[in-house]
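Agenda item 2: 5,6-dihydroxy-NADP complex prediction
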Amino acid sequence: MLNFTFHSPTKIHFGEDQINVIADEIPADAKVLLVYGGGSIKSNGVYDQVVDALTDHTWFEFSGIEPNPSYDTLMKAQDIIKQQGINYLLAVGGGSVIDGAKFISAAALFEGDDPWDILIKQAPVKKVLPIGAVLTLPATGSESNGNSVVTRNGTKLPFSSGLLRPQFAVLDPKVTLSLSDRQISNGVVDAFVHVIEQYLTYSVNGKVQDRFAEGLLQTLIEEGPKALNAETKDDLAIRGNIMWSATMALNGLIGAGVPQDWSTHMIGHELTGGFGIDHARTLSIILPAVMKVKRTEKHEKLVQFAERVWQLTDSDDTVKIDKAIALTEDFFKRMDVPIRLSEVGITQDNVEGLLEKLQQHGMTALGEHGDISIDVSRKILEQAL
Ligand code: NZQ
Ligand code: ZN
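Presented output:
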């Protein structure tokens, strides 16, 4: 396997009714900014639990962070941070809120002229405000990684810094019971694709990473559909397994020391930026096409995926790979997400525009070999039609 340094400092508090631990996790003298989204935490009781836990702290709030958080919204938090001398951010929500808190944190102490440079120029993040997280939507892994994705005028850009890993994260499966089926599906599919993008490359004999990844994939395949089934959807054991899988999928563990291929995400970001398609639904459309277009380069790992994740025993590798791709599409269908661009109204006419955006954003050498050029992305998008 490749050399790596693994450091995952986020303290995880998993389980029911753990939100009160934030009282002890946040320093008593901190000036806290509670950051949240469009109000789901008010209707499901999470806000009240957080407010109870913050009784002995000095705190303020900033709300309205939208899905695919917008730069303009996030910049509005800077006023209250300056006016009140905020020195701790508590993000309560899904990936968008936690990602948003990360950008707010980095922008607050950014030493350059324009915080947009953090995204557009990947300007280094040197100082941050500490972040704690209460996760309400298992999907992104943002609660224990240093990544963030921010949108401005249809341009969706990622940035990353180890400094931005939350200091702690509360994972209470009970808070996920208020999720809509659409958000449950999105979360399971996003986590599944995160695992795939750190697994389906080429072998470097990273046995631990591979087997962890295969275990996570199997767990998501087993538990995901149950969270949509009326008879089992409120089972907290199922919700808990999904929640922990999503965190483990992108906290750096399975990706340490192995090649990675984030092409599905990068092409997917253009579909969200340009057409407003939910993040996970871009992935369920693009991933099968990446598997098909890159099946020669990914041959060995596709066979391993077929054998170990889908237990396929056919003697012919080609048959195994075909079946594994079909079963992946079938899993996405069972999770009720689209697998073709036509299902979301995107046609051949939109392909060149998407490629121009990829070019503008420097996404011209994607994949584990850096060989997914604009021409290869064209093939992937056309395959996905
Ligand atoms: O805003 P509120 O009212 O909270 O409602 C949210 C939002 O409308 C709702 N929701 C969240 N928890 C809920 C709930 N509704 C009912 N009950 C609950 N318990 O769900 C909606 C979607 O939330 P959002 O945070 O946007 O979803 P998700 O967690 O899927 O995050 C998506 C964002 O994360 C980025 C994506 O690009 C996208 O911007 N990603 C971040 C990554 C990272 N930091 O590592 C990696 C990912 O690949 C991804 O790119
Ligand atoms: Zn994702």
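Discussion summary: DSSP finds 15 helices and eight strands in the chain.
Owner for follow-up: CH.
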